[in-house]
Amino acid sequence: IYILEYMFQLARRHNSSLMAFAMAMTFFFVILESQSCTVSCTVRSELSFCRLPQGSKKGKAAGEGLLQWDSERETVLQALTQLLQLDIRSLWSLSLVEEEFISCVTCCCYKLLENPTISHVKNKPTRDAIIHLLGVQVKKYNHLLGASVKVIQLLQHFEQLSPVCAQAVSVWSTEYGVKAIVGEVMRSIGQKSSEELAREGSGVKAFSSFLSELGTLVPDIMIPNISVLLTHLEGESPSLRVAVCEVLGEVLVRVLSGDGLDESGRADRDRFMDTLQEHLHDTHSYVRARVLQVYTRIVNSKALPLNRYSEVMGLAVGRLMDKSINVVKSAIQLLAAFIAHNPYSCKLSSADLKKPLEKEMDKLRELRERLQENAPVAVIKASELWAAMEPELLLTVRAELEPTSEGEGEQQEREEDEAGEEDDRATAIQIAQFLRPDQDTSEIREDLPPTPQKDGKQEMLLQYLRDTESFALQVERAIAVINTMLYWKTTSVVQEAVQFCVTVCEFSVANSLTGVRKMLPLVWSTDAAIKDAVVQAYRRLYLNPQGDNTRAKAQTLVDSLSELMVDASLGTIQCLEEIVQEFFGGGSSLQSTVVQVLWERFTGKRETSSLHRRAAVLLLGMAREVVLGNLDTLCSVALGEKLTEDFLLARDSVITICNITDHQCKGAPFRLPQDNQLFTCLTQAIAEGVVMADPHWQSFMEQAVRLLYFLSESPDQLCSRLLQRCSRLLLDQIAEVPAVSCVSLAQLLSLCGCVAFWQVSHLERSVSSELRRRRGETEEREEKAKQAANDSSVEEELGLMGASAEDTEAELIRKICETELLAEENLLCSFLPLLVRVCSSPGRYCHPQLTTAACLALSQYMMISPSVCEEHIRLLFTVLERSSLSVVRANAIIGLGDLTVRFPNILEPWTQNLYTRLSDENPAVRQTAVTVLTQLVLKDVLKVKGQVSEVAVLLIDPQTHIASLALNFFNELASKDNAIYNLLPDIISRLSDPERAMNEEDFHTIMKQLFSYITKERQTESLVEKLCQRFRTAKTERQWCDLAVSLSLLSMCERGLKRLQECWECYSDKLTETGVYQPLLSITAKLRRGAKPPLKVLMIVVVCIDWQNSFSQWFKPHKKAPPNSDIHNSKLGTSQAKPSVTSCHDDSFVTPKPTRKSSKKAAITFSSDEEEEEGICTF
């Protein structure tokens, strides 16, 4: 007894000491931690505002004190952990540790967690020590409930603790085995109502971050309690919806994935998948974007079930049309993940899958037919047959076995004795086999046709091919949408679209090369990020080939680039040149091998197609330094004896030579003598091709004549002899066959026009630059000679001399073009009457190629001088309007565009005729017209006037590429100050013209796009006044409605609303029309949503009450109508409701001068606050 009492007294003394230690520790922890936070914040603030020098004594002292406490803090926490791990329960009666002691220790831990820097990387040891100390208390000292409550409180007040709390809960549930705490915390968050979450503010973000982080750490432990979180999916907080969806995603990736799931696991997986799919259509764009990212992670982890691929893929394609940029980017990333991790095939082409699919369908059909033909006869089991016949058989046997008399019995015995033993034995065997209950059917199965298992395998294969084709079709649908995003204004979307195009190209998806080619012009983008993305994409696709050796890599690289060059436009080739030059200039190890492969293809040493030979010569032209040393080889191969056999190869070779020589700009120009073999081959090929019917001769001739003027010393003499030679060959042909070949004549006229065009270009570019170069050299020599005199006026004198010399040279060239090029002794003059005759007599010269060539050549002749242009401008416009050939009209537009640039004053009166072609019935003509006019307007050659309304009509063109060109026109025009703002009233007037009879929906679509460019408040205010004034001159109801719709499309503000009220008299008499009243009413509806109280008062009182007063005045003659009758229920006749328009001016639909009348505003008094809120007011 004494020993026990001593032990109890000793325990009490130790208990008291331990409690005292706990109290003291808590006190010091709180003080030191508070001082640490205060000093840390003070030092940081003073250092940031430069109040305290970083090397001052005060700063050093504070920093040393803070550092000392940080090191000691971790030691104290480790000591406490070791203490609590001991069995200290015997220090208390009944072996229960007092709650007060536990509270002291936990108070220190939670106080430390409130430190703003606890989540920093440098405090990771302290953070881990706190978590383990709390873990011991949760496991051994029943602190589970208190810890869960404290975690919720920390999240509510300290948003930065979300990852720390998630790590703590994860450690407690895994390392200490207290999994129940996960459920407690999840239930606490799940039970939060929407009202509580709305009040907490930052706590919602903390809860969301905590759940997302916890889902990445312990998704398997969260599954039993995940149902309590699903209620937040219907809540108002988008961040919580995102967090729950991310938890579901982690569970699906790390727990509910694979083929080894049981029925319960598969049911949970399907339920979670359905939940995620629902939130792909969430009302908040942030949720939609994050759910798409969750699906991207699921697909990348290969956790998406195969039967959901098609459905989720379709939803992702639908999200490409989302209004949110982030959603679109996430959808593109998801689609790229689908393609990169698809379970179907490495080659996704629906066209290639059709043949295997049809083949397997035929096999399945044949298999089923064979099964039906060889179907076995239905076999009834012996047991079933015996059960059916047993009752009747028993009756028969009994009847036979019971003898009727003794005589009959003896006779029966004698007959049985006479039966042979063999017959009895055979009968017994047959009966035994027949009555056997479980007959072995293995022998019977050998004779049966193929089992249905083969049919099932064939069906599985067929279903796989169908799924693959469906997936490929969805990918192709996505490609069509994403290709349009390559030219969006958002840089991040363009980058994602570029990466997607690269992915689909690597998987050989059908039409993937379209996107790769379409993004090629982006190498000229002013945005460095977009340009770099395109360059990296092409480098990944084409310039980093795979192969076993250098030769194989070079072969692959050339093959890839050649495929891209096939059927590529000139613009595509120019863009590709920018990327290929980077490869050749980057010093790649493959450069020499690639050049060797290209030369082998071009020279024909390796068998290849003509397309690849042409691609090889164009690629060689992009490496200028390589080709300059092999110019003779290039000419001998492509421009030799077999030139006329392949004009396309010769044309591409000429283009290559032109590109090489065009960049030699330093010093004297590079020229060759007239007797050079190159010119001999070219002129001979051009002359022989004139009398040939080769469709590719035209393009070759144009490039060849261009090369003659680029390289020849006297190109005018060379081309003069060429024209004489071609004319002689044509005359010889006429002499042999007494009829003119229209094709040959058309080719001769094309040659004349091309020579005329390049002759003018040669004079104004080459000759002018050469004169300028020589003058510069002369002035430089004179300046050096006069430097010794040191005259200050030398520079000014030389400057004046240079300016006058430039004017003299320009005048000389103009005089040559005016007088000499079309002089009688010049051969070009001889063809001009023939051109005029062909163009002016389309009935007689009706051959399409001849008419086309003559029209284009005439426009090129008109480029020579103003006199020739003025003389034939009417004829060219007549051809433009009356020609039945769309190609002639398109060529005429191009020629007139060039003439507008060269002679703007002459073409200015004919501008309206150019705009008329925007409504041409042929899409190619409309496309050409909008392209030419876009260049003329954006380069300020044409003044922008009301005719731009014709371009606006193309915004709704049925041809999407024409509509995109029109949209690009207005996008570029909007970059000019006030351009669209100045044009809008005239555009509205022209589109509202009753003679045009435009559909209302089309008008609304056009105006919606145009008004999107009006963003300045001052422009909006001015447009409100202009449009309101036009109500006075509008004569039809449709014009009133169009003006009202235009007003409703403006981004109205307070000043605009005031201006609308000031112009009340302009439209007040038109409000009886529903088409006028409803759009104007929608203005107030839009402003009412986010308007401030003063603006609401102005909107409700100044506008609505004025309308009601006017309505009451209109309804005064109709006494039967109630005073508050709605304007929609009015049955006034048109003659009574509509104002008289005879008093208006009879001028055209133009903006009159604004007239303002000073009117005394009525005083407004509100009867009550409630009436003020509802918009009810009295005068």
UniProtKB/TrEMBL annotation:
GO molecular-function terms, A-Z: histone binding
Record region (Disordered): 401-423, 771-792, 1121-1179
GO biological process, one term: meiotic chromosome condensation
Biased composition range(s): Polar residues: 1131-1143
Keywords associated with the record: Cell cycle, Cell division, Chromosome, Cytoplasm, DNA condensation, Mitosis, Nucleus, Phosphoprotein
Alphabetized InterPro entries for the sequence: ARM-like, ARM-type_fold, CND1/NCAPD3, Cnd1_C, Condensin_cplx_su1, Condensin_cplx_su1_N
Domain Condensin complex subunit 1 C-terminal per the UniProt entry, residue ranges: 887-1047
Composition bias, Acidic residues: 403-423, 1168-1179
Subcellular location(s) per record: Chromosome; Cytoplasm; Nucleus
Biased composition (Basic and acidic residues): 771-786
Domain of life: Eukaryota
Domain Condensin complex subunit 1 N-terminal: from-to ranges: 13-147
Family per similarity comment: Belongs to the CND1 (condensin subunit 1) family.
Protein name: Condensin complex subunit 1
